[in-house]
Amino acid sequence: MTSPLNPMTLNTVPFKKRLLLTALAGLPLFIYVIYAVITMFIPGNDPSTRGYALLGVAFFPVGLLAFTSLHGGGIFVLAWAFYAVLIISLFANNKKKVFYTVYTILLITIIFNLGGCYQMFKHQNH
Q: Is 60 within 8 Å of 112 (Cβ atoms)?
């Protein structure tokens, strides 16, 4: 067993903590999925549009595109790939500096993504 003051453990992030922080970062998407599933079963909703909210999960990274002039399927795939690389990096690296740097980038990206989605929906409703 290693000592808590071991220099090797002071510069690492335990797997459970990495898992918890990554799950917290994904909480907005998880909440949206729950919302989308619930709205499918609300009586009175138009049956032809019930699946649209759930389909919106696949378009999660589109909010990032609201801040760019880039559009198209390739950019959409690139945005998902960017998220995938960030998530994989969080699990693959336990060094504190790298983990928290990547985690900060992920959080900032999610904030911009949510802000972009808000802007897109705001313009769509007016």
A: no
38 pLDDT tier (thresholds 50, 70, 90):
confident
**pTM (2 d.p.):** 0.71
d(CA 56, CA 66): 15
How crowded is the C-beta side of 52, counted as CA atoms within 13 Å? 6
Task: Encode the chain in three state secondary structure.
Answer: CCCCCCHHHHCECCHHHHHHHHHHHCHHHHHHHHHHHHHHCCCCCCHHHCCHHHHHHHHCCHHHHCCCCCCCHHHHHHHHHHHHHHHHHHHHCCEHHHHHHHHHHHHHHHHHHHHHHHHHHHHHHC
**Six token digits for residue 29:** 């998407």
Selection from 26-40, 43-57, 59-73 with the highest mean pLDDT: 26-40
Using alpha carbons, list the distances in angstroms from residue 17 to 55, 69, 103.
31, 37, 12
